[in-house]
Amino acid sequence: MASQISRHLRTGQTGEQLAAAYLQQQGFVILRQNYRYKRAEVDIIAQKDRLLVFVEVKTRSTDRYGYPEDAVNARKEALLLSAAEEFILQEEWPHEVRFDIISVTLTSPPAIHHIEDAFY
């Protein structure tokens, strides 16, 4: 059981690293990773010019059981929104905000699917 949990965590960490590198290649600056507020966590907070993007990263080792982004449900969206609201207040961010999902499938090579404006 412990090996399954550690493998799951490694899979998630690998996906987040790939997503952060992908965003940087797209011209984003990574402001925070694993930002926590109460029970919520934002995987990546990135900025490009006057756009602040809150990113939920979902990673799977295969798409055999569905696509990673399918795991983002209404509860996860609500938690992400509450953490984003707190971050925006703390930073006094006055510009545009967007919520994205980056789906990573750890095939060879890894498949990265960036869904912009995934929810509001």
Automatic annotation (TrEMBL):
Source organism, top-level taxon: Bacteria
Single GO MF descriptor: nucleic acid binding
InterPro entries the record matches: Restrct_endonuc-II-like, tRNA_endonuc-like_dom_sf, UPF0102_YraN-like
Protein family (similarity comment): Belongs to the UPF0102 family.
Name by which UniProt lists this protein: UPF0102 protein FJM65_05110
